[in-house]
From TrEMBL:
The chain crosses the membrane at residues 63-85, 123-139. This is Transmembrane protein 42. It comes from the Eukaryota. PANTHER family: TRANSMEMBRANE PROTEIN 42. It comes from Alosa alosa. The keyword Transmembrane helix applies.
Amino acid sequence: MFSGVVYGLLAGFLGAVASTSAKLSLGADYLKGVCETGLKTWAGENRMFQQENETAPCDWLHIPLRLLCGGLLFTCNAVMWTFFAKALRLSSSSAQATVTTTASNFISSAFLGRLIFGETHAALWWVGISLTLSGLLILHGSTNRESQPAVATKNE
């Protein structure tokens, strides 16, 4: 089935989705702005539906969208903790599961932030994530060698 690494990667991704959902549900009018932009674009394509106040539905529509994002936050957190627990159980060490989940979360957060919010990261952030990934590779390599049985020598 799945290994601990796959569960760790999924847990990190779900953690990033949960934090993105939190930012959307609690953020300062981001969903309202997206709604207004979408309605203006849609109304621009459909000239017969233009009204004086094209964005009036956005005054109330962002509230259910925020509630939906809040529900997604709690759902993703619950599934993330389940996958993290499975990663801990199936990994050769708790450090391996933790570093895998953390690296996956950082990378997923960077891509989701860029995709949804248009965020960019400084070079120092990329240096930090590169060091984290290097540590992950070293950790994965060292745990494979440690899991091999040691050859016992007999001193007489």
